[in-house]
Amino acid sequence: MTRFEWNDAYRVGEPKIDAQHEYLFTLANKLVEATEKQDLVGCAMELFRYVRAHFRHEESVMREVGYPGYAAHYAMHEQQLARLSEISADIHNDRWTTESVADFMENWLQVHIVKEDTRLAGYLKDHPGAD
Q1: What share of the chain is helix, strand, coil (3-state, %, to 5)?
Q2: What is the pTM for the complete model shown?
């Protein structure tokens, strides 16, 4: 069963960021659906690597267009990476629960993208030229 479903409400208007966000939904579902520790570790590692690459891209777009909310958005990214590191440690130490991961992913996918990334989308629409 798919827990996180992509829909157009999550689009920010920058094609590469939108494609990355959509794939993050796929990775989030893989992680919360994994039941074996080996699968959990693999999914968490894949998600962490992908998230870091996604954040680097999103941050480069923000810098390129002079996004005034860059510092705060960057700080949120750092918090999310720190939380993903905690989740990875929990998996490694057998303290992981589906709900803790699902809560993190729901907050990030459905709150951060909808609120923070939508603010970025509005700025990108008013300031075209981002890659």
Answers
A1: 80, 0, 20
A2: 0.85
